[in-house]
Amino acid sequence: MTLRSAESLESAEGARALWGHPGAAATTAAPVPVAEESREAAQLAAAMEELRRAGCQMDARDKQLLRSLRLELCTEVLVDGIVIQYLYQEGILTDSHVQEIKAQTTSQRKTMMLLDILPTRGPKAFDVFLDSLQEFPWVKDKLMVKRKEMTLQDPAGVTEIAPSILKTSPTDQQLNKLARRLGREWEHIVLCLGLSHTDIYRCKVNHPHNLQSQIVAAFVLWRQRLGEKATIQSLQAGLMAEEVDPSVIQYMLE
């Protein structure tokens, strides 16, 4: 090819590229369809809302009330119908939450799972839960009365734990009592104490249908792994970090 021919070829290629001729070798990426951009934006917005809601905890008084009536609610409330559908409609529960609840084998376990989830769903979750109890008006009335009567225990009035007790490791009996008072927040507590997500997963796999056994197994693992450092004092610090009511550790030590 002569120099003139080469120059002519380069000129023709340049013109085709400039005017968008089909023969031009396109080097730019195809534009993203508007529908796909909108879908990605919606997914991002949903994820940000989920993170925002997860960061807003239920009021401590309401969390304490649900915990104190946990067993009673499990026997009196059937959540498989209107309750979870209403909570889903109002944005308190997600698709994954509904599936997780429905996957439980008994009605009591379904209610228990819901009670584990609710405290993590923001400050409005309790009021929406009350509204969802259309088929259980007597339960709603009882919760409202208890809520009015209930006042959080003043931290200044909590009995101080003796230093000698704080330096000891919790016993199996104490860990069992603690597990009875904890809900879904137990995972964050044991992570704060030094366990890993893998440790939590193993506890769940080993005790797939018993939340209390999962919690006890996790705390026993923590005690075994940390040895003398697994003290009641460090456990108390972990509970306080997750804003667990001080009465819980008092109950554990009774």
In short:
The protein has helices spanning 3-18, 34-55, 60-68, 70-76, 82-89, 95-102, 107-117, 125-132, 137-149, 163-166, 172-181, 186-192, 197-206, 211-226, 232-241, 246-253. The chain is an all-alpha fold.
3D architecture notes:
The protein is built from 16 helices and no strands. The chain is mainly α and 254 residues long. Helix 13 (197-206) packs across helix 14 (211-226). The longest helix has 22 residues, at 34-55. The N and C termini lie far apart (97 Å). Residues 2-29, 47-55 and 152-157 have low confidence and may be disordered.
Features:
254 residues; 66% helix; 0% strand; mainly alpha; 16 helices
Shape label = globular
Annotation, overall tally of beta strands = 0
Number of helices: 16
- Summarize the amount of helix as a percent range: 55-70%
The end-to-end distance, rounded to whole angstroms, is 97 Å
Give the uncertain stretches in residue-range form: 2-29, 47-55, 152-157
Strand content: under 5%
Rg computed from alpha carbons, rounded to a whole number of angstroms = 28 Å
For the report, how would you describe the main beta sheet?
Answer: none
- Series of H and E elements: HHHHHHHHHHHHHHHH
Round the mean pLDDT to the nearest integer and report it.
Answer: 78
Structural class: mainly alpha
